[in-house]
Amino acid sequence: LFLLFFSTHEELQTLDVDDAFFSTPEDVAARALQPRGGLKFIRSFQKQAEDQAVNLPPNLHQLVHNATYPQSPPHMVWRYFYDLQGSAEDPFPGGLFQWARFSLNTSNLSPTEKIFSDSLHQHEDTLTLATLRIFSNGLGQPHFHFNANEMGYVISGCGQVGVVLAGTTSSFNIGIGDVFFFPVGTQHYIKSVCDEDLLLLLAYSTGDQLQTLRFNSYFRSTSDHILAQLFHKAQVDLQENFPRAT
């Protein structure tokens, strides 16, 4: 069972091997592929009535006698493969992330992680992936991303999502199998509302380092005299309740 993300907002366009084969004129296919049986062998292929995107014919054991997949060398494998489940955990109050992404700072990356990171950054329209575990009744605080749309899939648990827009907030419940979407620059939060952890798989539409600004960062970084004017709150109350980090 796979969960797939594709980096396009257009209708996904796919060309399968069998579609390409049957769309090619017989004589052209015969001259290009040069089978021993020539044109006669090419004409022996029959187009199946159903889509062959996933092909499990009932007589598979008769058709395939030896299926082997030789392992490619590590420097090739890790350009296209990443062990997300086995990657380092990135904790925060209330949960933890695991990331498959490009990182500007490679000092803490293993050699294989660096290969994958560099590979992501070499291609346009790649994706950053993450698993997010929010502990029971924990909160992924409001934040937004400067450089990526975000899409998520619920693996287990249940939660509530809030999308904070100018003058309004949209909130909805999420459960196993649900998908949610946050456009770039949209502030949002996610919280667990079950006795079990909320586990999500997230995809971000960037191959660059993900840029995120969290609610507590920009609120507490705003000068207290500005906050006093905005919220009609005594400056001294804000200083006492939101002390500056030293």
UniProtKB/TrEMBL annotation:
The segment(s) forming the Cupin type-1 domain are 107-239
Entry GO CC: Golgi apparatus; plasma membrane
Q: Which SUPFAM superfamilies match?
A: RmlC-like cupins
Identify the InterPro entries for this entry: Cupin_1, Dynactin-associated, RmlC-like_jellyroll, RmlC_Cupin_sf
Please identify the protein, giving its name as recorded.
GL25 protein
**Which organism does this record belong to?**
Tricholaema leucomelas
